[in-house]
Design a protein that fits this description.
The strands form 3 sheets. Strands 4-3-2-1-13-14 form a 6-stranded mixed sheet, with helices on one face. Strands 5-6-7-10-12-11 form a 6-stranded mixed sheet, with no helix packed on it. A two-stranded parallel sheet has the order 8-9. 31% of the residues lie in helices and 20% in strands. The protein is of the alpha/beta class and 326 residues long.
Amino acid sequence: MKFLFLTDTHIRTNSMRSRMDSIADTLETKLKEVNFLAKKYAVDAVLHGGDLFDRPDVTVMTVSRFAKILSELSCPLYAVAGNHDIYAHNPKTLPRTMLGLLDALGVLQLIPEEGIVLHGDCQVQLSAAPFRYDIDRGEREAYYVKRQNESIDYHILMVHGMLLKKPFIADISHTVIADLDELDADVVLAGHYHNGFETTFEKNTWFINPGSLLRTSNSTMDMERTPQVVILTLEKGKEINIELVPLVSAQKGDLVLSREVAKDNELRRENLERFKQLIREQVELERYDILNVLQELSKKEQVEQDVVDEALARLADLKETQDEED
């Protein structure tokens, strides 16, 4: 079986300060090229690694425009939810989001965490680890999805988490590949980290992140890299084949990313780091995250999990209301 994998499209209509082009037009061109590549490589399915949308409540006009393009795919589209697709980092809010709407309408299919099995010239299980507030904290159980049965030839786990090849900023929760125990997955397709990383094979598993399809920052890495997709070929009894395909329609970074904004962002980052350092000298930085505070308090006070879940749901409702007012 053959798959096309892409991630972090961040579909939106309004342009952002970092870009000099029309975001919507650029995204439309790129997604039409994805449709072309899906036909060219005769893939059995397209897989999306999360953050299909830039926010859970993008406008109906935007959803209509891009749902039409996605529905023109020559094969099924399977997706996992990213942090921008849901409210308050809570996957349970999906039914109230535009990603959930596309799932309900059959434009795409959200992969359940326990996985689904696709039947072709081999049996492939697709499993998902959608973004949630604790995906890269604690035991990281989201990465340890099991095969449903022994007849599965290949197991693909799609993860929207901060999965990286080397340690990252201490204040940002992340998971280093080398720190994971051996997984029950042949391939891990990762999103969320926009720069992507070099495809690597560790502990009998392939780890792949081609980077975001939409460059949203003005970093040197975003300036220099070309958005790309992955063609993954799985044949029973043969080695896994992985091909990275750069998008022909993606313009060079200096043509679409503003260097002036990049300079401003660098200055802001320096100021932010100084501010963080001042805070670290007084308190733990993570205590400014209400979700972290809630989790810490619930553990200390031994609050029942259903109570914690209800509190998180109410926070999600509050966040949704605030977004609507904005």
